[in-house]
Design goal:
By secondary structure, the chain is an alpha+beta fold. The chain has eight helices and 14 strands. It folds into two domains: 169 residues, 2-Layer Sandwich (Ribosomal Protein S5, domain 2); 141 residues, Alpha-Beta Plaits, CATH 3.30.70. The strands form three sheets. Strands 1, 4, 5, 6, 7, 8, 9 and 14 form an eight-stranded mixed β-sheet that branches.
Length: 324
């Protein structure tokens, strides 16, 4: 018998970022991090282990992946097979409701959904912590997408100690994130490549680890106190200091484009005019704007005028992993 299991996971946006791996095999980060899971961007993945298959079959957005493109998916499946003592190949079908490889963390939702669907299809009943550890082996940020709301990923020092847990999973604070899709094309420098270059060559990398420790210690009580200004100031400064690592690497690289810089300036202009909002961005040109729900009309009106309505997406705090 072949039982298909479907899981849904939402993407997350790091408010305090990790940017650098300590162990690329176990996907252990150099630092801890903290994120917000979003409701508008998600991945649905269905997995079935089928004894008639002679190899894993992986389809993403209705496109069959070749052996090279599916290697990270097969790696997670291998981990599940080992844990479940079930050597059967699997059929995987995944649909991303996220622009892929453009700084909107499609890999986070993709591998969190894969971990949830594959583990249950193999007959495993993993705890949330163990699902977080499994998802991490496919994509570091996926470890946080197992949970909803504000989530902290503990860097740890080995496979067992590196996992995420929620700080505030059911968010009642009226905050939102406006995603500006400035460029949905695949980025030229992958997150993995960029991290390796920054860790190896940026003279500022040792200071970055101190920055993250400081920012984590400051942002967690601010979130618990619903101190919007402090959270906004920390996430914006943290993002800029992460991107300083890209500009100070050898060779230098950047995820910004002209539209990114213009959108940053527009956020600063709105803030100067009394609209409280702060920006962040990961490995891609697309800006995310942290704001309060009451200020959404002013922010969205301005950016829809500048970019067009389809490029401005409003998201709110989202849920954790679920099964369909």
């Amino acid at each position: 018998m072949t039982t298909a299991v479907t899981a849904r996971a939402h993407t997350n946006i790091a408010l305090v970022k990790y940017w650098g791996k300590a162990d690329a095999t176990l996907m252990l980060p150099q630092t801890s991090s903290l994120s917000l899971t979003l409701d508008q961007f998600y991945t649905d993945t269905t997995v079935a282990f089928d004894p008639t298959l002679t190899a894993d079959q992986v389809t993403v957005n209705q496109v069959r992946l070749d052996e090279h493109a599916s290697r990270k998916v097969r790696h997670v499946l291998d981990l599940v097979r080992t844990q479940a003592d079930r050597p059967t190949f699997a059929r995987v079908s995944s649909t991303n409701h996220v622009p892929m490889a453009a700084g909107l963390a499609s890999s986070a939702s993709a591998f969190a959904a894969l971990a949830g669907a594959a583990s249950r299809a193999a007959g495993l009943d993993l705890s949330s912590r163990d699902l977080s550890r499994l998802a991490r082996r496919g994509s570091g940020s996926a470890t946080r997408s197992i949970f909803g709301g504000f989530v902290e990923w503990h860097a740890g020092h080995d496979d067992a100690s590196s996992y995420a847990e929620p700080l505030v999973e059911s968010v009642t604070w009226p905050v939102a994130m406006v995603a500006l899709v400035l460029d949905a094309h695949r980025k030229k420098v992958s997150s993995r490549q960029g991290m390796q270059t920054s860790v190896a060559t940026s003279p500022y990398y040792p200071a970055w680890k101190q920055v993250v420790a400081h920012d984590l210690a400051a942002i967690k009580p601010a979130i618990l106190d619903q101190d919007f200004t402090t959270v906004g100031e920390i996430l914006e400064t943290n993002a800029m200091r992460m991107h300083a690592l890209t500009l100070s690497a050898d060779p230098a690289y950047s995820y910004f484009n002209g539209a990114t810089l213009q959108a940053m300036q527009t956020v600063r202009d709105l803030r100067a005019a009394g609209v409280a909002c702060y920006y962040t961005l990961d490995a891609g040109p697309n800006l995310k704007i942290f704001c309060q729900v009451a200020d959404l009309p002013a922010i969205t009106a301005r950016f829809r005028q500048d970019l067009g309505a389809e490029q401005v997406i409003v998201a709110h705090p989202g849920p954790g992993l679920s099964w369909r």
